[in-house]
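Late entry, evening session. Most of the bench is empty. Finally got around to the prediction I had been postponing all week. Sequence below, unchanged from the version circulated by S.P.
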Amino acid sequence: MGNYLSAFLVGGLICAIGQIFLDNTNFKPAHLLVGLVVLGSILTGFGLYEPLKEFAGAGVTIPVSSFGNILTQGVIEGISNEGAFGLFTGLLKTASAGIGASIIFGFFIALLFSPKA
């Protein structure tokens, strides 16, 4: 039960902070999304995302900050395996499945429904 509670509290806190940010600034949701991805990258770079993930589980792996974590892990792994060239290959290897799936699913959804321009 503790895992569910910590996931709910941490994930809810992230969402609440994001909503407060949107309600009290002139920024758009895209700004918030980019900020959460960058925050996930920064926390990963400092080694803080993994302990947070162990504590909160799905509370931090489902929000957008997890994408920043995945990208940064790929870059770190790529650099350690292939040097400077791994900066690009690690990023692409790690994120390609998710990005590819998004494009494919988006294409099929657009075929089923009438997207507006």
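Two things to note before I forget:
The chain is about 85% helix and 0% strand.
The radius of gyration is 17 Å.
Will write this up properly tomorrow.
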